[in-house]
Amino acid sequence: MSFRAALVKLGPILVSGILLFAFFRNQDVAGLAEALRKSRWELVLWAGLLNLFLLPVLRAERFRKIIAAVPNPGPSARLGELIRIMSATRVLNLILPAAAGETLRIVRLKKLYGYSAFSAAAAVVMESVAEALAFAGIALVLLVFPTRLFGVRSDAIITLLLSFIGLGTAVLVFILFMSRTRRPDAQNFHRTGHRTGKLKLSLRRFRDSLGAVNTGGVWWIALLWTLVVDIVDVAMVGLCLRAAGITLPIAGWCVLLVGINLAIAIPAPGHVGTLEAGAVLILLALGIERGPASVFALLYHAAHLFPTLILGSIALQLEFRVQPVAGDQNFLKTHGRSPQV
To answer: Which of 58, 216, 219, 273 has the most CB atoms within 10 Å of its CB?
Structure first.
């Protein structure tokens, strides 16, 4: 095994180990365990139920709106099937580095609905862009009214918000540059040229797919659904804060959510270590003591991790047993083979 391959495989585990060591270093483990025991677990249960039943539906419906903008010869994506595919993808992303689980979503969209890999990949990218832009918008609002909203003016919080605004701006500029192309029609969308190099052809196909998604009201619809998803996630933050005995205004919940999402961008299996580090650092910047901050981090991680593992494991078992229904197979045969990668 080469050094680069070993780094890709073992690097995220090493990151988790270092951050967990820092999390528990000088921590009163007995006191932390007692605080966890005394936490209001019924509120954590409600947060977990939101993650188990509501968030998967909202995320799948958002993606269905995005993928519907891509010309495709096959049948339309169904909400129930997207929930299953995306749940399986999420559990794989907890295990595999660099969100490699998204490969499953792309492959299944191609097999079940006839989307090309470039079209599916473009829709996945646009979903991530919508998430980044929504967080950047939240960060901008919090930055404009920092003192009035959460009563704590912290250089660390200001830096965090500026970082997310900068990230969102960079992502927007990149996606607009990549998608500067005419929208292809359904008939010639997958045609290839004979004189174009393979790499250049792949890039052109991907840009065409982005151009197809980046049309009309798709952006606004994706952002609207993303804000709905974020509202539910903010509610989960609030429930876990209350469960840990922490009182913060709603703006503080939003700051915490933004900070956690920036922290978990660092690759680590199951976000172990990265989520805890991000949550504790933000809460310390908001004036919360380390003990309650650590309790919140563990409760919030549990509310996200265990429902994702439960639903995703079931979906993953079902996913490889599902084939296109007879009507879909006949449709794809009638209109030719599924687009080639």
So the answer is: 273
CA nearest to 119, candidates 177, 63, 194? 63
In the chain, DSSP finds a helix count (H) and a strand count (E) of 15, 0
Residue type, 7: L
Residue type, 287: G
Q: How far apart are CA 115 and CA 108, in angstroms?
A: 9
Q: pLDDT per residue over 118-131, tens digit each?
A: 889 888 988 988 89
DSSP reduced 3-state for 194: coil
- The DSSP H or E segment spanning 218 is helix 218-243
Q: pLDDT tens across 57-76, in order?
A: 999 999 999 998 887 778 88
Provide the pLDDT confidence category of residue 179 given band limits of 50, 70 and 90.
Answer: low
Q: How many CA atoms lie within 13 A of 234 on its CB side?
A: 18
- In whole angstroms, give the CA distance from residue 51 to residue 57: 10
User: What is the identity of the amino acid at 213?
Assistant: V
Q: What global pTM score does this model have? A: 0.84
Q: What is the mean pLDDT of residues 88-97?
A: 88
CB 258 within 8 A of CB 160: yes
| Residue 201 Cα distances to 168, 177, 279, 338, angstroms | 28, 17, 43, 18
The amino acid at residue 130 is A
Cα–Cα nearest to 243, from 40, 42, 37, 51: 40
Which segments of the chain does DSSP mark as H helices, in order? 3-24, 29-37, 41-49, 55-67, 79-95, 102-113, 117-144, 146-150, 155-178, 198-213, 218-243, 250-263, 274-285, 290-319, 326-334
Q: Where are the domains of the chain?
A: 28-324
Q: How far is CA 107 from CA 117, 129, 142, in A?
A: 7, 21, 39
